[in-house]
Design goal:
Helix content of chain A: over 70%
Oligomer: heterodimer
Number of strands of chain A: 2
Distance between the termini of chain B: 19 Å
Order of helices and strands of chain B: HHEEHHHHHHHHHHHHHHHHH
Strand content of chain A: under 5%
Radius of gyration of chain B: 21 Å
Shape of chain B: globular
Helix content of chain B: over 70%
Number of helices of chain B: 19
Strand content of chain B: under 5%
Largest sheet of chain A: 2 strands, antiparallel
């Protein structure tokens, strides 16, 4: 129990100390993020991979309103907690080649956001979940709007209003569930046990789904995403794409499916169709992008579309694939954005056609970039393959046509990603890239760590699959059982 | 009773101190007087005493009295150098504010409608003078005149309403009125227009649409500190008076007055938010945002539950302290730059990070972001109305909250993301105290609201 509280609040303590640490904020925040990672690993080692919720904390918070500080970790939570605490130190380390103005605030906000994310990923009380959901949003808004690029104010306003609009309607859904709950609390088990008819479930489905769909984002709720990713500082983009979008996916798994299975049954098809449209649409747009950062942003929409299709297909393979792919996508996309950031910091552009021939002058970068790209396009032997394979299998079990179209993501992805790699790294060096210096120091450390993860998870994904298997199984059984009682 | 006596005596002492030019003693005297009154408020807790059948200091009255006194105290701390620069006779300011406060204490604790009227008039007359206290300033005079005319007009409505209700029930006493509603088989037809007229009269006072037209001009024209007082403490007292009548005595008639109230709420939310969106002036934006908050505050009355009153208390507390921060920062900025447009806030984060941070917390609270008091306030309102599953109404309020994000975040954008004049902006110690106390209250209520949830 104490371990979980420590896990959640260590980043918060870190954030406060970092905020007052002035010039040494970089080091202080790195220390805190690495200790958090260590703590998450300790918890993962003590975690027994069965379906139970472990390290549970249940403290009264606002007793009059039925709000408790109720948190715990099961296999699914464990995975995203590990992802969060793994990526935060990587993201902080990736900022070492930058000198942000007012670093104390920058790093404090990152750690503050980590606290919010961990709340979201461990909360077993809907109100706590909502608090975490918003607590993660505020810091990222400031990170993107203070340290972002051109037109950042307008873009981030759009992002902020979009997400908060979704979450306010989710709050309305949560209040509705609370009022339906005879025990008058926000406990997740009580919400699972509610008997709602299918009309009610339909409304709740949309209240939650839109919030999650905006966060992921799923077509047609994605319009904030490319601009925000492009205008954000690289660390902001990494936080958004690497971790924050997993909030949406996690939300679907933890809250949407088990609470309103009949709603999912009725409307899940719409969700799958939207996801698949998103895959094709985002892939096609990615083809035409001239800016590599925007290209990766759109490719992210395509990948997330596949994950969400896999979840709504609602079977063991799809769900397990989503688990693995959440982890893989987080690692890969952070790697991609970091490479683009390195390129940008050297030559001040991410325009694909202005680059070329970097491989000749920067072999280490070329190698690591290649591995990350291959991971992203799901080459067998990389982490991306396991996830996408399982996801496609899940979607296949749902419907052959769906999987045929969703499968396009792999083909399209391979084409635009490899073409991007080719144009950026291969070919003749031009006047811009001739002076390119290879990666060194922390850049090397971060990129090789990411590559190692990509390959290790690709060859030996069993620990991840094993970690989540029992919980996923349990979730499916629970939902199917509930679905049978409703019908 | 002790509370009113203490405040009134303090007011007289301060007036005499002013006569003997003891300007330095004014603030300490006032603070001591208010702290004593606050002490009496705590002592009377759970006492539920009735004074001469006219006033009842139940926990409702005491809780709202407490907020009003604390709010006034914080505003007094902001007076440092504020009045001195403008007038020699500063004792008048102190006295008038104290008298207004005494009137408000009556408004929040009346048991007899005559006391409501007396309290309201004591408060209003003081405020008419305060709004126009800058004798040579045209805007201030305009504000005062407008406020006076509108105020007198609305008092007419209120009095007429009281008269009709008296005519129907034969009593000014709230309990008797309620007993009349519960017991009599047929309610006299003149009772209903009485209720509506009182609702209109009180809506004028709290600045709810469509009776809000005086608010922006008066708020803008009056000296900023007086605006602060009017839009926070005065407003809170107005709501308490409204609640005492409608959620108390007139509660049995809820089905009748909920329809006009719903119209008022929707109009207030919509007009307040949408007009605030287009303001270029920070002070005017706050004026319109205060209208929209009036809408949220009335929101709780649409569905009367046992928590309605407490919800208003929480919301009023959240709103009061966040607004005090916003106005305090406005005074600081205006003293430095001479302007109260949004542009004058540009780059505030660089000029004074502490002030910028406090203002940010205030804006987040007014917008209703979790972990601030404002969120808890809004959440309780939504929850309250959702208990009868009026989902469309809640959805409407949510859409309005979204509009609110836009204009509150415009302030945050100006403060943090825009570059402005690089001049240092120093805050006097008293301002720092007010800002930090208000921020602390805002965050504590946001993180652990349990302390205030069951007060009433």
């Amino acid at each position: 129990m104490e371990q979980l509280l420590l896990l959640i609040f260590l980043p918060l303590v870190g954030a406060i100390i970092t905020a007052f640490s002035g010039k040494s904020a970089k080091i202080v925040s790195t220390v805190f993020s690495v200790v958090s990672l260590g703590l998450a690993l300790v918890i993962a080692c003590n975690f027994i991979p069965n379906a139970s919720t472990q390290f549970e904390v249940n403290l009264p918070w606002i007793a009059d309103l039925g709000i408790n500080f109720h948190a715990g970790i099961d296999g699914i939570s464990m995975l995203v907690v590990l992802l969060t605490n793994l990526l935060v130190p990587i993201i902080i380390l990736s900022s070492y080649n930058h000198e942000y103005k007012n670093p104390a605030a920058f790093y404090a906000l990152i750690l503050f956001m980590q606290c919010g994310l961990l709340l979201v990923f461990t909360a077993l009380d809907a109100f706590l979940f909502y608090i975490g959901w918003e607590a993660a949003l505020i810091p990222i808004y400031f990170i993107c709007a203070i340290w972002g690029g051109k037109d950042r104010i307008r873009i981030n306003m759009k992002f902020f209003v979009y997400t908060i609009a979704g979450s306010l309607f989710m709050l309305m859904g949560i209040i509705y569930l609370y009022l339906q709950n005879p025990a008058h609390n926000f406990d997740i088990q009580a919400f699972y046990a509610l008997n709602l008819d299918s009309a009610q479930q339909g409304w709740i489905f949309w209240a939650f789904f839109i919030a999650f769909a905006i966060k992921m984002p799923i077509f047609p709720f994605h319009t904030w995403q490319p601009d925000t990713y492009t205008a954000a500082p690289t660390q902001g983009t990494m936080l958004l794409s690497g971790i924050m979008l997993k909030m949406g996916i996690y939300g679907v798994i933890r809250w949407l499916l088990p609470i309103v299975p009949a709603g999912v049954h009725d409307w899940g098809q719409v969700a799958i169709v939207l996801s698949i449209i998103g895959i094709v649409y985002a892939s096609l747009i990615a083809f035409t992008q001239k800016d590599a950062k925007r290209l990766v942003a759109y490719s992210s929409i395509a990948h997330v579309g596949l994950i969400s299709a896999g979840i709504f297909a609602f079977n063991q393979q799809g769900m397990q694939g989503a688990m693995v792919q959440m982890l893989s996508h987080g690692i890969n996309v952070v790697g991609l954005f970091f490479v683009l950031d390195i390129i940008f910091s050297r030559v001040k552009t991410n325009k694909i056609e202005e680059l070329g021939g970097i491989a000749k002058v920067a072999p280490h970068l070329a190698l690591t970039f290649l591995i990350i790209v291959l991971g992203t396009v799901a080459l067998p032997g990389t982490n991306g393959f396991i996830g996408e394979f399982l996801l496609l299998m899940g979607v296949y079990n749902y419907g052959i046509w769906a999987s045929a179209i969703a499968g396009l993501t792999i083909i399209f992805g391979a084409v635009y990603m490899l073409r991007m790699y080719q144009n950026v790294m291969l070919g003749e060096t031009n006047s811009l890239t001739i002076t390119f210096t290879d990666i060194k120091g922390t850049e090397k450390l971060v990129l090789y760590t990411i590559c190692a993860l990509i390959i290790v998870l690709g060859i030996y994904p069993k620990p991840v699959l094993h970690l989540t298997e029992a919980s996923v199984q349990h979730l499916l059984e629970q939902v199917n059982q509930k679905l049978n009682t409703v019908n | 009773m002790n509370i009113i006596i203490t405040i009134s005596i303090t007011a007289f002492i301060v007036l005499y101190a002013g006569l003997f030019k003891a300007n330095k003693a004014l603030l300490p005297l006032t603070v001591v007087g208010l702290l004593t009154a606050l002490g009496f408020t705590f002592c009377a807790w759970n006492g539920n005493a009735v004074h001469f059948g006219m006033m009842q200091t139940d926990n409702f009255a005491l809780a709202f009295s407490g907020i009003c006194i604390i709010g006034t105290l914080l505003i007094f701390l902001l007076t440092q150098n504020y009045f001195h620069a403008k007038s020699d006779n500063i004792a008048e300011y102190y006295t008038l504010i104290l008298f207004a406060l005494a009137g408000m204490i009556m408004m929040v604790s009346y048991k007899n409608m005559a006391m409501l009227f007396v309290g309201l008039e004591i408060m209003s007359v003081s405020l008419y003078i305060l709004a126009g206290i800058r004798k040579k300033d045209f805007a201030s005079n305009e504000a005062s005149l407008k406020y006076f005319l509108m105020g007198a007009f609305s008092t007419g409505f209120l009095l007429f309403g009281i008269t009709l209700i008296y005519g129907a029930t034969g009593s000014f006493d709230l309990d008797r009125i309620q007993a009349y509603l519960v017991n009599s088989q047929v309610i006299s037809p003149i009772f209903y227009p009485g209720v509506i007229l009182m609702m209109i009269g009180l809506s004028f006072k709290i600045g709810a649409a469509p009776f809000h037209f005086w608010t922006p001009d008066v708020y803008e024209g009056a000296p900023t500190l007086i605006t602060t007082f009017m839009s926070t403490v005065v407003k809170t007292a107005g709501f308490a008076a409204f609640l005492r009548l409608f959620a108390g005595a007139l509660a049995p008639l809820h089905d009748f007055w909920v329809a006009p109230l719903m119209v008022i709420v929707c109009l207030t939310l919509f007009i307040g938010n949408v007009t605030a969106l287009f303001q270029k002036n920070f002070k005017r934006m706050l004026a319109y945002s205060s209208i929209s908050h009036a809408g949220y505050l009335l929101f709780s009355l649409i569905v009367l539950t046992k928590n309605s009153e407490n919800n208003v208390l929480v919301y009023a507390a959240a709103y009061t302290f966040a607004s005090i921060i916003a106005f305090a920062v406005l005074i600081l900025v205006k003293q430095k730059t001479g302007s109260d447009s949004f542009e004058s806030f540009n780059g505030l984060a660089k000029r004074n990070p502490l002030v910028a941070l406090c203002l940010t917390v205030a804006m987040l609270s007014l917008a209703g972001i979790p972990l601030t008091a404002g969120f808890i306030g809004k959440y309780l309102m939504f929850l309250n109305v959702m208990t009868e599953y009026k989902t469309l109404l809640v959805a409407f309020a949510i859409l309005n909250a979204l509009v609110g994000f836009y204009y509150y975040f415009r302030v945050i954008v100006a403060v943090w993301f825009k570059d402005g004049a690089e001049t240092e902006l120093s805050a006097p110690v008293q301002y720092k105290v007010v800002l930090l106390v208000s921020v602390a209250i805002t965050l504590i209520l946001g993180i652990y609201p349990a302390i205030i949830l069951n007060l009433i």
